[in-house]
C-alpha cells in the first residue's frame, strides 16, 4: 500500500499521543460496558454478528473520488483552548449542505486520510476515508449550525466532513472457518488486501481491512474469503551445509579455559550434496509446486461499488497488506 499523508498537520494544544491514548482507553471501556449491558436474549440474537451497530459506524471506506466539502466541522466550543472534540462535545458546523438539514438530523463524520494505490501496478484504487463518529444537529442559525457528538470512534478536528447517516445492516456469519489444509479454491474471486483500518501494518482476528473489489464484482455483505500467502520461490541457500564452517566453530570452543584445538570431521568421504547431484536437486526443487499457506478468513461487512470493508474472523499468523484472499 502506498499512501499520501501530507494533509495530516493539525495544531494541537495537548500532546497528540497523550490525547489519543486517553481517547482509546475511555472509548474501549465505554464500548466494553455497552456490550456488557446487552440483555442475554439480545446477546443470543446477536450471536454470529460480525460487527456491532456502533462498530459498523466506525469502519471507514475507500472512495473512488474526493468528496465535496458540503458540510464540515468549523469550530469547537472552547476555541483557542482545544483543537479536537470527542463524544458528548459540542461542535460548530458550516457549509452549503446545511440548507437541507434540520434539527435532530444525525450525520457521520469522516476525514480523507490517504490515496490508496495497487502495490503492483501503482494504479489509484481510491481515497481512504476514516469514519470518526456521528454528530446530531441541535440548532440551526443563519450562517451555521451547532451540533453534539453522539458517537466518537476517534478524535474529530476542524475541517472534518459530515455525510448523511446511512443505516447499515448487521452482518452474520456462522459457517465453518478454514483450516491449515483448506485448499486454494480455483476459479473463485481472488484479490488482495490493500489496506488495514488506521493503516495498521500487522493484522489479526478482529482487524478491519479493505479489498479492491465491490458490488461491480458481485461482492455482497456476508461473503467469506479465505486468506492465503503465496509461498516464496525455492532458495538454493536452504540446502547449504557448510562443513568447514561447522568445524571452524568447534575449533574455537574452549574447555576449562583451554582451547580444544582442531577437531576433524568424523568422515572422510566427499559429500553427495555437491557437483552434478546438487545441480539436479536444485533444478527439481526450483520446479516444485507447493500449496499456498492458509492464514485465516475474513467476512465482508460493507460493500461499495469497487471496494469493500471486511473483518478478519480468524488468523493463524500475522496478516499483511498484499496477502491473497479468495471467496469461498
Explain this structure.
The chain folds into three domains: 1-25 and 49-170, no CATH class; 171-231 and 290-328, Thrombin, subunit H (Beta Barrel), CATH 2.40.10.340; 240-283, no CATH class. Strands 1, 2, 4, 5, 6, 7 and 9 form a seven-stranded antiparallel sheet that branches. It has a seven-stranded antiparallel sheet with strand order 10-18-13-16-17-12-11, with no helix packed on it. Strands 3-8 form a two-stranded antiparallel sheet. The protein has 328 residues and is α+β, with helices and mostly antiparallel strands. It has helices spanning 16-37, 40-45, 53-56, 243-251, 275-286; strands at residues 61-63, 72-76, 84-85, 90-94, 106-117, 124-141, 144-152, 156-157, 161-164, 190-192, 195-196, 208-211, 224-229, 254-255, 258-259, 293-303, 308-315, 324-327.
Keywords:
328 residues, alpha+beta, Thrombin, subunit H, 5 helices
Rg measurement, Å: 27 Å
Order of helices and strands: HHHEEEEEEEEEEEEEHEEHEEE
Q: Count the strands? A: 18
Q: Distance between the terminal alpha carbons, to the nearest Å?
A: 25 Å
Q: Specify the number of helices.
A: 5
Low-confidence stretches: 1-18, 29-33, 242-250
Q: What overall geometry do the principal axes of the alpha carbons give?
A: elongated
Return the average pLDDT rounded to an integer.
83
Instruction: Please state roughly what percent of the residues sit in beta strands, choosing from under 5%, 5-15%, 15-25%, 25-35%, 35-45% or over 45%.
Output: 25-35%
Amino acid at each position: 500500500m502506498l499512501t499520501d499523508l501530507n494533509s495530516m498537520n493539525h495544531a494541537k494544544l495537548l500532546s497528540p499521543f497523550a490525547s489519543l491514548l486517553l481517547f482509546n482507553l475511555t472509548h474501549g471501556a465505554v464500548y466494553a460496558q455497552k456490550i456488557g449491558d446487552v440483555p442475554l436474549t439480545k446477546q443470543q440474537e446477536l450471536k454470529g454478528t460480525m460487527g456491532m451497530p456502533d462498530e459498523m459506524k466506525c469502519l471507514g471506506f475507500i472512495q473512488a473520488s474526493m468528496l465535496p466539502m458540503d458540510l464540515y466541522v468549523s469550530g469547537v466550543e472552547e476555541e483557542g483552548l482545544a483543537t479536537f472534540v470527542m463524544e458528548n462535545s459540542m461542535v460548530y458546523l458550516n457549509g452549503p449542505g446545511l440548507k437541507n438539514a434540520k434539527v435532530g438530523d444525525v450525520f457521520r463524520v469522516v476525514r480523507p486520510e490517504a490515496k490508496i494505490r495497487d502495490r503492483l501496478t501503482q494504479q489509484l484504487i481510491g481515497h481512504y476515508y476514516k469514519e470518526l463518529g456521528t454528530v446530531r444537529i441541535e440548532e440551526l442559525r443563519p450562517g451555521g449550525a451547532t451540533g453534539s457528538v453522539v458517537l466518537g470512534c476517534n478524535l474529530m478536528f476542524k475541517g472534518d466532513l459530515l455525510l448523511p447517516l446511512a443505516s447499515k445492516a448487521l452482518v452474520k456469519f456462522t459457517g465453518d472457518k478454514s483450516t491449515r489444509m483448506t485448499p486454494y479454491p480455483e476459479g473463485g474471486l481472488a484479490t488482495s488486501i490493500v489496506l488495514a483500518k488506521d493503516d495498521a501494518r500487522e493484522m489479526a482476528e478482529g482487524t478491519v481491512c479493505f479489498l479492491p473489489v465491490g458490488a461491480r464484482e458481485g461482492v455482497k455483505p456476508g461473503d467469506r474469503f479465505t486468506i492465503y500467502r503465496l509461498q516464496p520461490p525455492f532458495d538454493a541457500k536452504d540446502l547449504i551445509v557448510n562443513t568447514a564452517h561447522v568445524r571452524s566453530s568447534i575449533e574455537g570452543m574452549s574447555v576449562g579455559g583451554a582451547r580444544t584445538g582442531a577437531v576433524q570431521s568424523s568422515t572422510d568421504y566427499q559429500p553427495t550434496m555437491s557437483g552434478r547431484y546438487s545441480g539436479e536437486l536444485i533444478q527439481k526443487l526450483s520446479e516444485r509446486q507447493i500449496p499456498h499457506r492458509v492464514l485465516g478468513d475474513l467476512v465482508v461487512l460493507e460493500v461499495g461499488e469497487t471496494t469493500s470493508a471486511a473483518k478478519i474472523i480468524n488468523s493463524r499468523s500475522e496478516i499483511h497488506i498484499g496477502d491473497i484472499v479468495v471467496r469461498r
